[in-house]
Fold each of these.
Amino acid sequence: MSYAQLEALGRKLEAVDHAIAILSADEATNMPVGGGEKRAEAVAHLAGLRHETFTAPEIADWLDAAKSEDLSAEQKLSLAEFERVYTNATCLPADFVREQTRTNMRSEQLWRDLRAKNDWAGFAPALESVVALAREEAAMRADKLGLAPYDAMMEQYDPGNRAAEIAPIFDQLKTFLVDFVPEALENQADLPLKPVTGPFAIEDQRALGLAMMAALGFDFTHGRLDVSHHPFCGGVPTDVRMTTRYRTDEFLTALMGILHETGHALYEQGLPRDLSHMPVGKARGMAIHESQSLFVEQQLARTEPFWHWALPHLQEHLGADALPGWMAQDVLARVNMVERGFIRVDADEVTYPLHIILRFEIEQDLISGALSVVDLPEVWDAKMEAYLGLKTIDNPADGPMQDVHWPAGAFGYFPSYTLGAMMAAQQWAAIEKAHPSLNDDIARGDFHAVNAWRSEHIWQQASRYSTPELLTRATGAPLDPQFFIAHLKKRYG
Amino acid sequence: MSYAQLEALGRKLEAVDHAIAILSADEATNMPVGGGEKRAEAVAHLAGLRHETFTAPEIADWLDAAKSEDLSAEQKLSLAEFERVYTNATCLPADFVREQTRTNMRSEQLWRDLRAKNDWAGFAPALESVVALAREEAAMRADKLGLAPYDAMMEQYDPGNRAAEIAPIFDQLKTFLVDFVPEALENQADLPLKPVTGPFAIEDQRALGLAMMAALGFDFTHGRLDVSHHPFCGGVPTDVRMTTRYRTDEFLTALMGILHETGHALYEQGLPRDLSHMPVGKARGMAIHESQSLFVEQQLARTEPFWHWALPHLQEHLGADALPGWMAQDVLARVNMVERGFIRVDADEVTYPLHIILRFEIEQDLISGALSVVDLPEVWDAKMEAYLGLKTIDNPADGPMQDVHWPAGAFGYFPSYTLGAMMAAQQWAAIEKAHPSLNDDIARGDFHAVNAWRSEHIWQQASRYSTPELLTRATGAPLDPQFFIAHLKKRYG
Ligand SMILES: [Zn+2]
Ligand SMILES: [Zn+2]
């Protein structure tokens, strides 16, 4: 039976993915520095092997044959998702992929060097090559998928994302934010900031993080918390590898990072176990994933009820002297600080979407050819000035050179971040409607209702539906920016 | 060029071996308990993949074709070792391997259960099946390799081991030990034992272990020390994963374990880097590996000069109060204690070889068919009584059921332990001859001479030569039990 052959194939791919995921987590958390070269070789070989396994010619036949087999409704969804993933994985010729991999890798390496030197002129030609190949890639994907080129690129990260639907939503949000950012800045102007008086011992911060993870529902029989230079949530659903990074003069950055990654981890741990080997059993995509991390970080944790519950734990683990006289509002004044800045990854939840919308607008024009790399700094500068009132023309390192995505050839990924933030707000609203006492629950550290709702409507749904369909099924309505706007108004208005 | 194809194949195998090694080390040191099932699936799949890759039919052609290519002397050695490994890996039919794997796995699982219950009668039928298949295996290996059946089994662990050469050596050693054990016991009778007064903090023990590892030459850019239930030395040469296990009431067990595993680690780290992907570049085998660990543990570390140097480090890390008034002899009185016991893994270096010789004698008869499983307890008991004066007939759990090797189907492995101990003594003698001031070096914590000699004569030789040839080339003479006997006489006589 062909469907059974697809299941066997899924198990093989799962094993290789398992190895790559654990090797990568180990590399970031445990590997001694001299192990890097052989580790890179091993992972590259496994990735090549995965590609070979997944692109074997008989798979297309299995997919076709399975369609006429007697499948349950569940299996039909699974088959459709298998075919979607297979098509995305095989729609580019092997020669093209090799050339593109080489080009993008060289560009990324050059970017690491030249960003540090703020050398746009030196980097631009490499980015030109990357963009040229990305245009070719988009055209080939579009052709194979029957989508517009930029949509075909987004399809890799969030199946169902369409620029025609996202653009008006982002426009509403942009219009709102351009006016709202100054208002939020003004509102916080006279909030008093309590000093953070360290040092905070790393063991204490770790114990606090573990306590928060456990309270939020992290399953320590299926995951752990380590330290790495860049925090991440990796591993596999049965063995989630989460990391953070501590500093001793300050603890809130690490803690908020832990809360964010816990959101990702709960999603992975909450996926349907018996489908873990099939594409339909995986996490839906980047936007939904980010909606789960931001749900915990922004919807749950940047709130008064949460800190009402969490503050005693903070004091228990960090010592009563560590936060003298702090109240929930004192934490919130720090973690919800709004600030206009150049750097996306440092941005707060109010200004962050403007960084994304700028990139969304620009990368569509890069892919369509309406914009050339050579004109990028000026376009970037003009938009930054219009949206955030900041000039970047003399500072490309903190302008169009700040992110790894484009130098590495990833176009169509950026929208997922802000789509995730909006989806998190919409999910919160849906849960609050179903459980009017939600904030009381949270003030008691009771996260059962939020987790039960998300388990049923998001985690257990895995990849049965496209990103927009999953959100619509979960919340009863398509993506609506008003939930996120209302959330910002309430918190910062 | 076929030799180049073998190199490419070697790199593929190295990548898969890398993944399996790191996944296994991670499993023992980091993996949360719920990750085990999927981890086992992933590793089993990678092992299957390795086997498929290595047994592809074209490899035999490459091996043949490479023989007529223009190869350097080094490449010829490499090719010969490649062929040897390939022949050993492919000499059993796939159906047989599947049946044997199933049988041995069931037997090992049953053994874990029934050993705890001391139930020999329940276990014997499973062991019968294992032995029956091992006899078939030995016959097939013998046929393919042109060796005697038991030699063909040993060949998997130590290429070149031949019972006809080992038996007279073991006989000399046995004859010596049967008389010498009572003498050693008598000699230690009036050695005073200083009390070990804990608790010893785990962080302190770890810092001490790391300091010892560094002094002995462990390269922390290519390895690390972790904790696991059963200590091991795993990973890959560029990323050696060593473990120990601590208790707080006592520190010597963990420390001696670290010293032993450091010996294994130095060997792996000292292998020729540019050959790591080829069979010729791997560690030679079990006996040579054990000779390297026992070299550090027994030849270097169970000595007065070593503790003359090490004792201040002990006191520095564990605190001056921890070992009040201890001298080198006080450590030696503890770590070199001789005791007759049932259990091989708990035995000291004087009695240990008798445990091995007993098994070596018995397993040859099991493989030849001269001994049936049903008669094993009586034969075991008779030999234990003759060699160590202990009765095991009523206690099979501590008799023939004590080790995992036979229940798991590993016959021909045991001799490697004692061959390693003898080789370590012979290597020590060779180094001492070349560096008469060796003990002075060690009393200063200077291990350059021993490491330089071992690097040149053992580590860098990797798998160029068979086990006996490697030892002969390194020390100038074939294995001679008198070095080990002299070592024991000097220490315990
Ligand atoms: Zn995230
Ligand atoms: Zn060992």
Note: Chain A touches chain B at residues 11-12, 14-16, 18-19, 22-23, 26, 30-35, 37-39, 41-42, 44-46, 49, 219-224, 236, 238-239, 276 (CB under 8 Å).
Amino acid sequence: MNERPAKRGVLLTLAYDGTDFHGYQRQDGLRTVQSEVERALEKVDPWASRLRACSRTDTGVHALAQKAAFTGTRDMPAFAYWKELERHLPRDVAVVDAEECALDYEPRFDAVEKTYHYRVRVGPSRDPLRDRTHFHLFRGMIRKGTRESTDVGVSLSLEAMREAASYLVGTHDFVAFRAAGDERKNTVRTIHELSIEREEGTTDALRIVVRGNAFMKQMVRIISGTLLEVGRERREPSWVKTLVEPGKDRRHAGPTAPPQGLVLVSVVLGRDRAEST
Amino acid sequence: MNERPAKRGVLLTLAYDGTDFHGYQRQDGLRTVQSEVERALEKVDPWASRLRACSRTDTGVHALAQKAAFTGTRDMPAFAYWKELERHLPRDVAVVDAEECALDYEPRFDAVEKTYHYRVRVGPSRDPLRDRTHFHLFRGMIRKGTRESTDVGVSLSLEAMREAASYLVGTHDFVAFRAAGDERKNTVRTIHELSIEREEGTTDALRIVVRGNAFMKQMVRIISGTLLEVGRERREPSWVKTLVEPGKDRRHAGPTAPPQGLVLVSVVLGRDRAEST
């Protein structure tokens, strides 16, 4: 209920370390990204609308560039909202950009493309500086892995993962790659890029880069868990080809990789931003 | 007070995210790395000695390879201590290696060489995924910096930092680079390497690599703060040359860079490890 007239649409870009959040979306009694940012916004503009975000990232998932719009009632530029919000946010969520947009702009319906990274580290021990942001595959879980050869190229077959990934690029029915219980009708999505890269400057970590038009709940984590089954040589690359064929469901794909490896890296928005409806 | 006979010397390698610790060393009522590891050790071997560590890292400073020895009373190999300790440690400190050593081994007096990294990021906004491990220089603090040119090479002069660093390599009196209040007599140290590198895979972060025989309290952070004064073009590289000349003290060097950028990366130990005295 706005008690003051809407003055300005503001589109925020948010970055967060998802470790200590129960996901992006507001939930009663739980610490979420949305509730922390809305709490800061209430101090800056008590009559502002709630946030309208682009992606509902899960518990433990990170973001470098989540997009969230709101309608403000103060007569000040987006940049000033950015600077004032920053004074009230905890250290694990930050506003990293702010721009003007239409008063009722809905980034969720205007996202044209999203990019996620999924990070994996192999090795014989924990690493407190990377365990917040990487899925750690213990030595014992990696076939052929030995303590001396935890190099990614040795323990996980990049070549096999790349072949498997190639079968998912393009427009397919990804019904086997959505969380069980998700009931939406349209399960066809387009993946523009699915690449597997070593992390620069490391010998023990890799990154799965996924770029596509839209993603279902847990889809990137199921894709990552499936590719890792191939990388660990538990499955052949050609198995992945069958997963986008008719008659498949969630039980046919690999496990859901854990959330801490996942980062929402960027979102491309369409042309609606400037248009008021 | 050991109530059981000493059976085994164990040398641990510890990795930790220093963010939520009041430094390495035990302090009454505060959460420190030593107290957390000793608490775990008490569950595994209640009669084990306290830890004897190699470096007293400050509040907020991280480690990939701190060395800490203890004397155990259980008849089991170092590897078994490692695995049992891991079951009782919090997620921000890990045992990453364990080996046998002399019963009374003191790694602090046997360290031959240590390597530290100091990480710096430049840019116009916070980054929750890197602010735990990098010193963030805001755009406004960087001369010549603009939002579009936050590339390290533009905003911080790597060339000037490298020239300044060259004056500190070798054996010098580092009395100007020790924390005020430190009263030890011998302030001569040898720096084998002091290099400035871009962080791989980034355009906005650099790493100062320091390798030397021994370091005084806050010495690496004062070196880093001093080099950053030069990188930001507040001082000439030749200024750093004067800081190891006679008659200098802490007031002449640059500011102490904040702790979160610092990581103890490795320690080379000498030959005492296997010898019982």
Note: The longest strand of chain B covers residues 111-123.
